[in-house]
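so my prof wants the structure for this chain in the tokens format not the other one, which i didnt know existed until like an hour ago. anyway here's the sequence
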Amino acid sequence: MPQRMPRPFRITGYLLLPVLLLATPSARAQSPATPSQGWADVERALGRTGAMNPGDVIKFSFPRSDMHVRVGDVQLSPALALGSWIAFMHSSGGAIAMGDLVLGEDEVGPVMRMLQEGGVEQTALHNHVLMESPRVLYMHIFARGDATRIATTIHDALALTKTPMGAPAPAAAASPIDLDTAMLARVLGVAGKVNGGVYQVSVPRAEQIMEFGMEVPASMGVATAINFQPTGAGSAAITGDFVMISSEVNPVIRALTSHGITVTALHSHMLEESPRLFFMHFWANANSGALAAGVRAALDRMNVKRATAR
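here's what i got, hopefully its the right format
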């Protein structure tokens, strides 16, 4: 009988990992950052301090606190699914920038025109959730070259929207959340962090992601993001995105749907990455432990790092 290959994310027992700073493609807390040489002009252009990540990646968050979006009975927190972000890393050509902008339907055209005029490209435009009100679209962007010019273009594009552009208030101390986060960490095998009333977990892939001959760090938006927003009595609304290679897409769909989790979108976020990646967004509102088990079943079908949270 042929030998059965083990799943790449198998864990014997549950491992509760140290809780580190979490960042998701959708929303990251702006924690105090140690300034990194070369990013001061970018911070000035964007009007706020960025958060430093491994690999000398600096990341900026623009939560859409102006938006009041509902999916059924759930009002979405900015930290759940309404966080624009932009990340920069050094490259031989100056800098690479990647990000995801949360936009209302009427904001898409003006923002796209401004970005194109400034040399910032679009790599995707799509939904993340279903039946939300009002409608929300997500524009993924990419640019290479002078970091300050890129940052200025992105700032000017966001200024055409209702995105709050002032410097964010100092981060408040984390308040208790109405979820058993220790249980969620045990079930998932990865610990996360409470940010803006949402429990956020990030799971990088095990292999290197390359684009234009450079490694793309997880903090540039290539890690699976899982967000839990409490909805009362131990339940949670969950959303985020799984970052998969082609052979993982349908096993992950089967794992999620068999646990009552709806797949809301399947698409690309990038254009020239290797290996080719697919991003799958999802939604459910049910018992948080049962949903964590469904998410874990999906992670077990992916080649992801076991002992990492960010």
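also thought this was worth mentioning. The chain is about 20% helix and 35% strand.
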